[in-house]
Fold:
Amino acid sequence: MDACWQSIGIQGDRSCRELRAHIHCRNCPTFKDAARAFLDRSPEADYIDEVTGLNTNMSGGGQAGEGGAPVMIFRLGEEWHALPVRVIDHIHPPSPVRKVPHRLKAGFRGLAAIDGQIELCMSLHAVLDIESNAGERNDASRRWLMLKMGGERWIAPVDEVKGVARVHRAQLQPLAATLERSPDPACTGVFQSDGLRVSLLAPDPLLRRFRASLT
Structure:
């Protein structure tokens, strides 16, 4: 995909002849076509294998090692959550997000350029129904998790990253009865870490919620 907006567009030297007519790249048909192609592209060849193996360690019944399974702990609003580190590609500082026309679901924030690549930016707050207290904490603590799930990369902004911990399945406490009755709960259990109550998220249902936010 030719990311012309980064070279001759609003993020580049602004030499594009179309800028005079469209003012900003996001108004240009080329940018809209690129966004549509990105969202509609075919999954990678290893998609089925990727999805099948999403929960092998923690949420799919697989056995963790003697030291427990490593998870990344992060904060959303006032709540602490964790994901298996195997689905976290890397952590990135926040960047500008460009909204995509006619994509109105709250779970999809838009597109962002990371290391020269266009990535889908999702909202964990929205897909998990968590209130965002954006004005109550220092913006400097916010980070983007680059998740790799279902053969795709997903940006998931979080309010704070605490770090990596190891969790044994025996440490997991059961969910509240109301959450257990949910047809597709995103949380597999709760554990304690350094005095914090942390909800362990399962990648598979989280992936389904991400995908539903794009339709």
Remarks:
- Residues 29-40 form the longest helix (12 residues).
